Structure to design on (806 residues):
């Protein structure tokens, strides 16, 4: 192999602006607690999100125990069951997945992948985490107040959410609303940071179209979140005022407990519109980072460039834009004008086109690739299987006429768990295993990781696939117990019990996962700087784990995209983004 | 020059990289970009409240907010505050540091006056016949003016820092950057106020609002 010397300056022009000045903490508190280093903040986000996520996991066990063996566990009464349903849903969607993908992966990966020293506003980034932490504390506090946490369902629909009789209508609902408002303030601080860093702090040569798809996914999801969360913020404020000041934004004239309430003229449907104007983009706030990350995992572990990179970028952007005009497909049974239903069914089905393109491109990337069945690749393939399954059932629920009889059944629960719970969680797990050697400098335990994968993959299918059949039979969601119904055979209860057993086993596997992460961070084998032979900049750092400032004395220069795998005529099967053109033989020849 | 529509990312560099698409090479003020992004987010926020207001007006039991004349005076004060910041910006560009400091202090005093005026308007409203909280339009009034006021109060934190820097620093260019960001924020909140005040709280604009919201 001929190696030709190169002159970097002939390719990369000097920067117009100087490098950012980093704040170097002098105290332990400043370095590890109130850190301004995006990587530390990322770990803080991830640890907090996973901790509260574990609470939500336990709450799912509470639900499953009741559904499998009704009235066996005396500590589960109807109020507690509804509280578990509500808190499980809200924690998983907002406080775990959103925070983990954007606050966790976003903070760790954006500066490293675009070649920046840190986020552009490190202090604001630190504040963002602590505001998020406060939101989590407020939420957790609702478990301990009089009346307990809210049991209104994660959608918090009024008037039910704030009327007496609903669990947590005294204080729990207010803490939930306050926590959401605080979360959104914190996220806005972080989100502005992510967007401005991506737009303005990319290193020389890192054009937008050379960014790894992980960054594209997080970028578009952040923009979505910035524009969707205000709807939730507005509705949280309005509902709080209805509770505290007796205003009537959402509360109609209504009788409660035999008495006439003070409210007049409020509109509960207004809340539904506002909630779902946030709620549907929220699906993609979780899904788009997963799309981006899984694209990179598949490409790296199949040693092949991603199929249709530009199409993948535009699909992310188009899905993000369309996600703002489909919200009312969550409201088909609210009595809307049929023409509205037609409009929203149409936009919902249109969004399937760019989504399907992405699925094809993932499969085509795998096609004839040099597939390495590493743990991240196994989770990526599992993501595809869950996502395709969930996407197909989305076609049923997107159609108004088919959706109506399935509304509020376990079919819906099965669908959204497949598509926006288990599928993104598969990516989360794959991504953690993928970047673990970079973050900790050590290898995880392979055996425990494989155990975790197979139990989670098979177990999750055993949980959610049979749930579709229960839903088609008409089993409703959120019911404490169903007894004495003529339309359900006894076998439905047997299926419910088997789902619960699978859910408990899957939950146990997550404990093994966490043990592996913690144990291996201390005792795992030392990992090299670029163990997967990956091309993107985070793998080209001088130190592993990367130090404060990410790169050495000089920021890297980028000469190519992140998908130069198995390039013909090149000795190695990968070319890092910061390798100049003339240092590879094929390009030198050309 | 390549861009996101035409760039072929699979082709490695064969010549100098186009600087405009290369992140750190562009000398744009990051704070300015973040502020513009924030204002876009805040716009969505107010837009949603206006649409919600319009949607609620369609119901037959709608009772409009009582007219409060004090709001006209408050609007004038906010306008003057915004003009002070614009003057400060122009003087910063002209290098007149002392004039900048005076204009910044003037803007701060007028903003505090505006916020006090808004609180007085709340006080007036609660004493009026239609001013009870169960009237949805009163709820909207309190919420929208309250959130607008909180944004002004948040802006005051930045303005106070800018005033402090204006008195401690001599770098006129740095001063210009800070004043420019404050001015943009104040002009924006003035615009939002004129919109919500004109559309929602001056009466007789119901049809206009409903048309804007797409309800008629």
């Amino acid at each position: 192999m001929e190696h030709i010397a190169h002159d970097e300056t002939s390719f990369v022009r000097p920067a117009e602006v100087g490098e950012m000045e980093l704040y170097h903490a002098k105290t332990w508190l400043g370095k590890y607690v109130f850190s301004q280093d995006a990587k530390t903040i990322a770990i803080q986000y991830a640890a907090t999100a996973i901790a509260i996520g574990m609470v939500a996991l336990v709450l799912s066990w509470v639900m499953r125990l009741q559904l499998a063996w009704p009235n066996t566990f005396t500590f589960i009464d109807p109020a507690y069951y509804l509280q578990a349903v509500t808190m499980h849903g809200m924690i998983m969607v907002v406080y775990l997945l959103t925070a983990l993908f954007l606050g966790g992966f976003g903070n760790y990966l954006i500066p490293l992948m675009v070649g920046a020293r840190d986020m552009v506003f490190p202090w604001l980034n630190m504040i963002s985490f602590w505001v998020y932490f406060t939101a989590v504390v407020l939420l957790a506090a609702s478990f301990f107040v009089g009346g307990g946490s809210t049991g209104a369902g994660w959608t918090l629909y009024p008037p039910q959410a704030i009327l007496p009789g609903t669990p947590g209508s005294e204080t729990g609902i207010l803490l939930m609303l306050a926590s959401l408002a605080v979360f959104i303030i914190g996220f806005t601080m972080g989100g502005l940071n992510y967007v401005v860093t991506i737009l303005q702090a990319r290193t020389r040569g890192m054009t937008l179209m050379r960014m790894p798809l992980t960054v594209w996914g997080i970028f578009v999801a952040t923009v979505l979140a910035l524009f969707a969360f205000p709807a939730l913020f507005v509705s949280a404020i309005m509902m709080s005022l209805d509770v505290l000041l007796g205003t009537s934004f959402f509360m109609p004239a209504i009788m409660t407990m035999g008495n006439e309430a003070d409210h007049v003229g409020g509109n509960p449907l207004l809340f539904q519109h506002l909630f779902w104007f946030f709620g549907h983009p929220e699906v993609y706030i979780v899904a788009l980072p997963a799309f981006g990350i899984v694209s990179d995992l598949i490409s790296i572990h199949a040693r092949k460039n991603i199929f249709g990179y530009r199409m993948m970028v535009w699909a992310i952007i188009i899905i993000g834009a369309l996600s703002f005009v489909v919200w009312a497909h969550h409201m088909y049974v609210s009595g809307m004008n049929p023409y509205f239903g037609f409009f929203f069914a149409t936009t919902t089905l249109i969004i399937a086109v760019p989504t399907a393109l992405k699925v094809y491109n993932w499969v085509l990337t795998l096609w004839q690739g040099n597939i390495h069945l590493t743990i991240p690749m196994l989770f990526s393939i599992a993501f595809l299987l869950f996502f395709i399954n969930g996407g197909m059932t989305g076609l049923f629920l997107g159609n108004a006429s088919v959706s109506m009889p399935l509304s509020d059944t376990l079919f819906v629960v099965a669908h959204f768990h497949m598509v926006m719970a288990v599928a993104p969680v598969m990516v989360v797990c794959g991504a953690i295993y993928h970047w673990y050697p970079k973050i900790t400098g050590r290898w995880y335990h392979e055996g425990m990781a494989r155990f975790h994968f197979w139990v989670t993959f098979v177990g999750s299918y055993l949980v959610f696939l049979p749930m579709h059949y229960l839903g088609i039979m008409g089993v409703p969601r959120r019911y404490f117990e169903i007894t004495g119904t003529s339309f359900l055979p006894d076998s439905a209860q047997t299926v419910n019990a088997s789902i619960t057993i699978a859910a408990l086993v899957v939950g146990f596997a997550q404990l093994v996962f966490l043990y592996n992460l913690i144990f291996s961070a201390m005792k795992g084998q030392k990992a090299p700087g670029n163990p997967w032979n990956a091309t993107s900049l985070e793998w080209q750092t001088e130190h592993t784990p990367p130090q404060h400032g990410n790169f050495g004395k000089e920021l890297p220069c980028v000469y190519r995209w992140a998908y130069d795998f198995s390039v013909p005529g090149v000795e190695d099967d990968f070319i890092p983004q910061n390798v100049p053109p003339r240092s590879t033989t094929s390009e030198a020849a050309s | 020059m390549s861009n996101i529509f035409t760039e072929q990312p699979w082709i490695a560099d064969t010549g100098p990289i186009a600087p405009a698409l290369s992140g750190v090479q562009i000398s744009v003020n990051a704070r300015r970009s973040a502020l513009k992004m924030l204002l876009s987010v805040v716009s969505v926020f107010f837009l949603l409240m206006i649409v919600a207001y319009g949607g609620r007006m369609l119901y037959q039991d709608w009772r409009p907010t009582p007219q409060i004349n004090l709001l006209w005076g408050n609007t004038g004060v906010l306008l003057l505050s915004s003009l002070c910041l614009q003057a400060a910006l122009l003087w910063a560009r002209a290098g007149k540091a002392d004039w900048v400091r005076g204009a910044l202090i003037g803007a701060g005093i007028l903003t505090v006056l505006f916020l006090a005026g808004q609180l007085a308007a709340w006080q007036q409203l609660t004493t009026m016949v239609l001013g009870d909280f169960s009237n949805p339009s009163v709820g909207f009034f309190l919420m929208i003016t309250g959130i607008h006021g909180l944004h002004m109060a948040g802006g005051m934190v930045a303005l106070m820092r800018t005033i402090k820097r204006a008195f401690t620093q001599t770098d006129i260019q740095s001063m210009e950057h800070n004043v420019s960001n404050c001015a943009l924020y104040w002009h924006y909140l003035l615009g939002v106020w004129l919109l919500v005040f004109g559309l929602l709280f001056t009466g007789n604009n119901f049809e206009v609002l409903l048309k804007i919201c797409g309800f008629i």
Remarks:
- Chain B touches chain A through 49 residues (CB under 8 Å).
- Residues 29-213 of chain B form a domain with the Four Helix Bundle (Hemerythrin (Met), subunit A) fold (CATH 1.20.120.80).
- The helical segments of chain B are 30-57, 70-93, 97-126, 136-168, 172-200, 206-213.
